[in-house]
C-alpha cells in the first residue's frame, strides 16, 4: 500500500516535560517510518495548565487540556495532537477522532516519598498528595488514618512540593516518571489490587481532525492493538457513568491470548462506599465488555454512589 503524506507534519503538544517527551516520541517514530517528511512540534499552554489552584474536577474537567490543541488542528496550524489518553474526555468533540493508541507504559500508580518506604509505613495524620478523586477514595478506604491533600501541576511541580516538605508522600502515575527517566523516585509501584488505575492510564493517543483521512493510514502503524482494545473497554465503562473526573472511577483491562480481564471500581470520594467488578471476555469485543462491567457495577449500587458524588459537588465539598 502506498501512503501519501504531506511533506510537512506539525504535532501539537502541551508544553509540560511529559507532554513534550510524548510528542517527541511520536515525532521520532514517524520520522523512522517517513524519513522524507519534515516533522515539527508546536508547544502550547492550555487552560488546564494555567489553573493550578483548584482541583480539576471543579474547574471543568479533562477538556481543559485538549481544547487549544484541537483549535490549532481546526485552524490548520497543526496536523495531529499527542495526548496522555487519561487526560482525554470520553466523548471527543464533533469533528475529531483518535487515529492511534500507542503501546501502554506501566499503567500502575506509584508511591513517591523521601522519608517512607510504602504507604503502609506512613504514620497516622501523614499528608498524602493527590488530586485524583480515584486515588483519594482508594487511599481513604484502606488508610483512614491518613490525610489527603490536593496536589496539582505538572510532574516537576508535584515533585517539588513533595521535596519542600508539604507532603509526606505523593501518588503519581508510574508511566510519567518512567518516561522522564525518574523511575528512581518511585519507592514502590502499587499493584492494581490496591490502586486500580484510571481509564487509559499509561497510554498515549494521537488525535486528528476527522476529515484527515490522509493521516489515518499513515498513523495506523503506531496503533498498538491490545492497548487500543484495553483502553476501549476502560473508556466504554467510564462513558457509561458520565465520563467525568468528578467521580472516583477506576477501570483497568489486561489482555492475555485473546482474553480480556476487566476490573473496575466506582466509589464515593471518602472511600466509604465502593462498587467493584472483575470480569473476563473476548479481547476483540471491548465495547461489549465495557458495557457488561458497567451493568455489573450498576447491580452493586453504582447509581446511588454516583448520586452521592453529585450531592457532594453541589454542596461544594
Ligand atoms: N493527570 C495528569 C497525568 N496525565 C497522564 C499522567 C501520567 C502518564 C500516563 O498516565 O499516561 C499524569 C500524571 C499523573 O497522573 O501522575
TrEMBL record:
Modified residues (S-(dipyrrolylmethanemethyl)cysteine): 245
Domain Porphobilinogen deaminase N-terminal: 9-212
Gene3D superfamilies: Periplasmic binding protein-like II, Porphobilinogen deaminase, C-terminal domain
Keywords: Porphyrin biosynthesis, Transferase
Pfam families attached to this UniProt entry: Porphobil_deam, Porphobil_deamC
Cofactor(s) it depends on: dipyrromethane
Enzyme class, spelled out: transferase
Cofactor: how bound: Binds 1 dipyrromethane group covalently.
PROSITE patterns documented for this protein: PORPHOBILINOGEN_DEAM
InterPro entries noted in UniProt: HemC (IPR000860), Porphobilin_deaminase_cofac_BS (IPR022419), Porphobilin_deaminase_N (IPR022417), Porphobilinogen_deaminase_C (IPR022418), Porphobilinogen_deaminase_C_sf (IPR036803)
Reaction catalysed by this enzyme: 4 porphobilinogen + H2O = hydroxymethylbilane + 4 NH4(+)
UniProt cross-references to CDD domains, sorted A to Z: PBP2_EcHMBS_like
A biological process from GO: protoporphyrinogen IX biosynthetic process
Cellular compartments per GO CC: cytoplasm
Residues of the Porphobilinogen deaminase C-terminal domain: 229-298
EC number: 2.5.1.61
Pathway as given in its UniProt record: Porphyrin-containing compound metabolism; protoporphyrin-IX biosynthesis; coproporphyrinogen-III from 5-aminolevulinate: step 2/4
GO MF annotations in UniProt: hydroxymethylbilane synthase activity
Any further remark recorded for this protein: The porphobilinogen subunits are added to the dipyrromethane group.
Subunit relationships: Monomer.
Function field: Tetrapolymerization of the monopyrrole PBG into the hydroxymethylbilane pre-uroporphyrinogen in several discrete steps.
HAMAP family linked to this entry: Porphobil_deam (MF_00260)
Family: Belongs to the HMBS family.
Name of the protein described by the UniProt record: Porphobilinogen deaminase
Organism: Glaciimonas immobilis
Gene designation: hemC
Amino acid at each position: 500500500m502506498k501512503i501519501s503524506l504531506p511533506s510537512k507534519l506539525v504535532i501539537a503538544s502541551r508544553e509540560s516535560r511529559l507532554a513534550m517527551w510524548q510528542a517527541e516520541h511520536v515525532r521520532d517514530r514517524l520520522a523512522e517510518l517517513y524519513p522524507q517528511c519534515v516533522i515539527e512540534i508546536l508547544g502550547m499552554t492550555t487552560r488546564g495548565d494555567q489553573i493550578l489552584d483548584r482541583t480539576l474536577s471543579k474547574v471543568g474537567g479533562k477538556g481543559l487540556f485538549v481544547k487549544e490543541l484541537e483549535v490549532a488542528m481546526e485552524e490548520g496550524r497543526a496536523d495531529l495532537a499527542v495526548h496522555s489518553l487519561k487526560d482525554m474526555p470520553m466523548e471527543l468533540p464533533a469533528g475529531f477522532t483518535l487515529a492511534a493508541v500507542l503501546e501502554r507504559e506501566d499503567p500502575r500508580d506509584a508511591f513517591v516519598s523521601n522519608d517512607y518506604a510504602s504507604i503502609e509505613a506512613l504514620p497516622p495524620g501523614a499528608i498524602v498528595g493527590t488530586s485524583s478523586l480515584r486515588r483519594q477514595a482508594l487511599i481513604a478506604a484502606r488508610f483512614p488514618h491518613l490525610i489527603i491533600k490536593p496536589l496539582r501541576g505538572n510532574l516537576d511541580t508535584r515533585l517539588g512540593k513533595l521535596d519542600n516538605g508539604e507532603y509526606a508522600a505523593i501518588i503519581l502515575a508510574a508511566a510519567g516518571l518512567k518516561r522522564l527517566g525518574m523511575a528512581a523516585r518511585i519507592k514502590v509501584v502499587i499493584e492494581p489490587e490496591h490502586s486500580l488505575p484510571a481509564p487509559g492510564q499509561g497510554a498515549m493517543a494521537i488525535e486528528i481532525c476527522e476529515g484527515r483521512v490522509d493521516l489515518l493510514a499513515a498513523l495506523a502503524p503506531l496503533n498498538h492493538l491490545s492497548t487500543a482494545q484495553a483502553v476501549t473497554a476502560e473508556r466504554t465503562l467510564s462513558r457509561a457513568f458520565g465520563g467525568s473526573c468528578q467521580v472516583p472511577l477506576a477501570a483497568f483491562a489486561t489482555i492475555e491470548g485473546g482474553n480480556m480481564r476487566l476490573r473496575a471500581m466506582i466509589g464515593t470520594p471518602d472511600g466509604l462506599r465502593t462498587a467493584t467488578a472483575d470480569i473476563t471476555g473476548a479481547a476483540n469485543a471491548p465495547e461489549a465488555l465495557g458495557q457488561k462491567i458497567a451493568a455489573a457495577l450498576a447491580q452493586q449500587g453504582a447509581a446511588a454512589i454516583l448520586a452521592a458524588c453529585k450531592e457532594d459537588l453541589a454542596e461544594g465539598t
